[in-house]
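User: Modeling request: complex.
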Amino acid sequence: MRICVAGARGMLGQQVVETATAQGHTVLPWVRPDVDITNVESLMEHCAGDKPDAIINCAAWTDVDGAETNIDAAFLSNRTGAGNLAKVAALSGIRLVHISTDFVYPGDVHRPLLETDKTDPQSVYGQSKLAGEVAVLEAYPAAVVIRTGYIFGHHGPNLIDKIANGIKAGYNMPFVTDQWITPTGTPLLADACLHFLASDTSGIYHVTQGGGCSTFEMATFIAEQVNGSGTISSTTLDEWEPVQSARCQAVGRILAKRPVYSVLDTQKFRTKLSIEPLSWQDAIRVHISG
Ligand SMILES: NC(=O)c1ccc[n+]([C@@H]2O[C@H](COP(=O)([O-])OP(=O)(O)OC[C@H]3O[C@@H](n4cnc5c(N)ncnc54)[C@H](OP(=O)(O)O)[C@@H]3O)[C@@H](O)[C@H]2O)c1
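Assistant: Request completed. Predicted assembly structure:
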């Protein structure tokens, strides 16, 4: 396939370019300022020139706290930009995979979430991403929207590396025991995007590694994988949020509300694509050793 990757310079975008190239596809990386997804005319021109069979949208405003004070900019990339790509893909009838987030959920249900569960984003970022999903599927119902969470990979700064480096440097790092996630590697996501392009399915799918954990469990697991004198201590959201909020305020930012529980049920994706993702622990092990 000829595949255009929007946001090809981001953490996931770079992995998608790498994986798609390795699988033998012709990859056309779309990066700003050359291709800005908020400019629909420019997208039309690039699409006409590049003649892709498919587009994968990894472009987004991803500064979660920054979105609280940059509402228009977040919505411009995450809603308008996503919708533009869907319009362009629909016009040419080409496959489109769009990436969304677990932050569309309110986070108040304590069991793995289904694609059909109620959305109610608690942050501007989550609201803008949900608006993007709606814009994509309204313009192009044949598109695939992937909801995922807590991404890590070799092509961008991420919490896994930050914790590993902190342990090596001898820091003590507190993590909460009462917020649940599933850390997800970019290799799995990139592979899932390519499988979706080759499939005939559409609509919303959850894609994450297997299992789920508190951020304290995740950090403790990472600490066990690396050598260093650093330590992980436990805290709770009630204790931690005021500290984080004060830190944000000190630099003129607002701490966005994150879902308390956002482990996603991935059975729909695993059944459709016949992929069995690594557990979050194995994916982190592979990342750290690689
Ligand atoms: N990171 C996570 O933990 C996480 C969790 C759940 C879902 N997601 C979703 O996963 C996707 C990829 O995230 P990521 O972590 O790879 O993000 P990232 O590293 O921040 O990369 C995002 C990329 O999007 C580009 N971009 C932003 N606005 C654009 C626009 N208007 N036109 C063209 N390009 C634009 C940026 O370009 P510049 O390089 O020019 O700034 C950047 O390269 C996003 O949809 C994100 O919402 C991420």
